[in-house]
TrEMBL record:
The keyword Hydrolase applies. Residues 155-181 are annotated as: Disordered. GO terms for biological process: dGTP catabolic process. This is dGTPase. One of its GO terms (molecular function) is dGTPase activity. It holds the Pfam family HD. It comes from Streptoalloteichus hindustanus. The lineage of its organism: Bacteria, Bacillati, Actinomycetota, Actinomycetes, Pseudonocardiales. PANTHER family: DEOXYGUANOSINETRIPHOSPHATE TRIPHOSPHOHYDROLASE, DEOXYNUCLEOSIDE TRIPHOSPHATE TRIPHOSPHOHYDROLASE. CDD domains: HDc. NCBIfam families: dGTP_triPase. It comes from the Bacteria.
Amino acid sequence: MASPFRVDRDRVASSPFFARLGGVTQVVSPTGSGLLVHNRLTHSLKVAQVARAVAERLAADPGTADLLRGLGGCHPDVVEAAALAHDLGHPPFGHLGEQVLDRVARHRFGLPDGFEGNAQSFRIITTTDVRGPSAVGLDLTAATRAATLKYPWTRLSHPRPHPRSMPVPPRGAGEPPDLPGTGSAKFSVYVTELDDLVQCRAAFAGRVDPWQQTVEAAVMDIADDVAYAIHDLEDFHRVGVLQHATVSAELGAWQEGALELAGLDRAGLEAQSRRPGRSLELLRRKLHGKDSWLVDDEAFAAAVSTVRKELVDGLLAVPFDGSVEAEQAVADFSARWTARLCEGVAVLAEPHPRAAHVVLTTEHWHEVQVLKFVHHRFVLARPDLALHQRGQARLLTALVEALDQWLTDRHEASRLPRRLHDLVELAGDEYARLAAAEPDLLVGATGEAPRGADAVRALARGRGVVDFVASLTDTQAVAMMEALSGRTGQLWTDAFVL
């Protein structure tokens, strides 16, 4: 008989929410472009691969066995299931879609939770998927549900005191500096799933602090970072975006002028950020500001040297031409770095508040930061990517508005997409219960809870629309907006609901 944790993994893998990730952007949408780039499905599979490898290594190490048991354990099946589930809630167009839906959820619908991809994943596995025996969520074990919680708190209210008020907030718990009063920048649970959070974390009480990741969640989180740092570089080397000359100039200029750059004031660096070496120096200072307990300038310099040798002088030295030799170079780079970073995982009995009990060693943490910097500086900051993302942001905003208008049209109420209708009804029941039993949980940035049935229905309509849009693929979102805008004569035939 299969273990309950293996059943968890199989339920996640067979969910249509998981299958849909094949049509959701990781960084750029491959739809119609012919680009061979990762999507959220292939990313999740690689995260699961890395996470299981790390968990198996830790579980086999007799030096950490007692410590891991005392912290709640590290089962490879739990870690793999959580890794497969961790991105289920990502909306169309990746992180851009997440930002857009959060903005419209808070400003158009007044949802104090807004939208967060991690919290949406937890909502799917506990509430909106129906493939579990009880037809509410996936009926996963408490261990697996807890392992999906990268940020085990709600945006504003739980636990109390809230981790964003700690002298040193955990990673992700602090408020965005440009959005004071809105709550934590990252969180893994909406108030509608707060009871699931409390239940699945109960077994870890006294083992890890209420705001800390479980060991299994920490392994999944590290695996996500490792996969992200490596395979996005592969993608943009393949398509010719990541150029040897520009990356080499940035890393080389910092190495050669590190002392001089360290003496420049921040304003000067920012004004010259397009010049080689300046952006990397800004990263070094940013790391000191956020993680001074961990940052080490010698380790940072060593990481820059290692990445320059392995990435610039290695992988990028020969342009990708689709040959067997080029593919082998990419595969070797990926395998070598994955193995290297998997080996660089340690277990701590008393971690810093910004860390978990499972961490990358200082050396490997710095290397991941530099790899991620290269991706951000030379891919995410490109104007041509921004051009497409601005269009995608407009499309998602317009789609939410069009669906909201449809919901409020009493003449069309009987012709709503059934999935949208069901999601609004589900949210209506949830918010009605919260408004009656725990209205404080519905208090947002205004400081007031919704009053009356109309206010509760408005919240439910907002959550239902956001749930619906978040469950679409990139292509479905585009096609649905085309249909709602009257720009297509084709009848809507795609099975766009889950």
